[in-house]
Description:
The structure is a single chain. The chain has one domain. About 65% of the residues lie in helices and about 0% in strands. The chain has helices spanning about 10-25, 55-75, 85-100, 105-125, 135-155. It is elongated, with a radius of gyration of 15 Å.
Amino acid sequence: MSSLAGTGGRAAVLLVTIVVSAACGSSGGRVETVSPTASPVPSTTSTPSATATPNAAGCTQVLAAGTAFAAQLADFAQGQTTLDQLTAAATQLLDTVNATVATATEAYRDTLTQLQGELEALQSALHQTPPQPASIRAAGRQVVSTLTTLARPCASVTPTAS
């Protein structure tokens, strides 16, 4: 994870790319690549302001776990991963968010709290019997949408080499 610290901007771009792929591929067996201009970009007024300065270590950890989760979600949409693997990635992301929220600034904490709620809803969907793939994908899309919102302020605070 420490290797992501110097490449926070690239990690955020990677996360957004995976998020777009996961969200677009949820309708069927294949994930299609979508150009950045084809995906909706949240307005800058909907993201935390520049005064919302999340800590860099927390950002790096949440983005790393978020990237792993988004990759599992994309694989799940393609039928290339198991429900247990997706559940493990979601649990890891929730654990990381839970550990980060205590040290977060107020505005950043609000987004993390939103992410916690979405991850709990995803956990409920993951534990339905029988599994409902459409519900899982819908809940997963909510999670990756919030991760995309979170990636912008995180990219601005990740450490760079001086």
